[in-house]
Amino acid sequence: MKTLAELQAIKEKMQSQVDLRNESHAGTRVVVGMATCGIAAGARPVLTAFSNLVQEHKLQDVSVTQTGCIGLCQYEPIVEVTTPDGEKVTYIKMTAEKAKKVVEQHLMRGTVVAEYTIGNSDVS
Amino acid sequence: MTELSLNVLDIAQNSVKAKASLIEISVDISTAENRLTINIKDNGCGMDEDTVNKVTDPFYTTRTTRKVGLGVPFFKMSAEMTGGHFNISSEKGKGTEVNAEYVLDSIDRMPLGDMPSTVETLVLYNTDIDFIYKYSVDGEGFELDTVQMKDMLGGIPLDNPDVAEYIRGFLRENTDEINKDKTF
Q: Are the Cβ atoms of A34 and B173 closer than 8 angstroms?
């Protein structure tokens, strides 16, 4: 059984480090819709994938958060990516695999993955 | 929903929206009594009697984007279709408690699914809310208590990468140990 004792070790390790966390709010925001519609459509693994990948690639200025229903339930899981220049891209019908591509192309290289965006589907 | 843990995530989001500062979730399985019980309790804003009576109606919702609200009705249905029970009680200003009881071996009972993922998502994305999660199978179980964790960590946030990794491992390893190669 894993116990709280390990937490003490993490605390000691953290305290010996200089705090490198940069709490800037000017970075890129990734918002995952997590209402009933999103969850039922598979938003939980999408959210987990984004946060794991952001951590894995050490993307310091990217924050991953959740929100309620965006109002386009038939396109869930929906992910909105807002870059510091204020531009918002809406990705629809996301999966953990698609999240990987969005992280690598959009978040890391600045190229929107057009094929997953809402603009690319036949929604008016 | 394809697994009960997704219902739990969905219902707990209501507690988050109700501005709870403490959310308690418990999953208790008893093979002897052929029962699986899920309880979600918060100290959020609560609802008046009239509203509580309406939330199990799919055509009642507080959101403004559309006219249906399926979270609570889905959860209720998941329990009742196994021959189990569902109950929601709430008091304005005090909080809400949701209880779902399942017949464990019912063919209509959805699998419990990935509870560690649900709890991890709730804990790491709502670091300002405290969570107490209890999981037990036939009297043996474990507890995750963020009040205790925050106490030990001092000022280090729960979503710090090392701490998040620890929480993930804590939930997974302990769940596996309690389950003893069984899946529910």
A: no
| ipTM exceeds 0.85, yes or no | no
Q: What is the largest CA-CA distance in chain B?
A: 47
Identify the sign of the CA torsion B131, B110, A37, B169.
positive
User: Which residues from chain B sit within 8 angstroms of residue A20, using beta carbons?
Assistant: none
Structural domains for chain B: 4-179 (3.30.565)
CATH number corresponding to A25-120? 3.40.30.10
Give DSSP secondary structure letters for A94-122.
--HHHHHHIIIIIIHH----GGGBGGGTT
| C-alpha A99 chain-centroid distance | 8
The SS3 assignment for B3 reads coil
Q: What CA–CA distance (Å, rounded) separates B128 from B157?
A: 9
- For residue A25, what is the DSSP state? S
Among B residues 80-99, those touching chain A with beta carbons less than 8 Å apart = none
The Cα–Cα gap between A13 and B7 comes to 37
pLDDT digits (tens, 9 = 90+) for B110-164: 999 999 999 999 999 999 999 999 999 999 999 999 999 999 998 888 988 889 9
Residue B172 backbone phi and psi in degrees, to 5: -65, -50
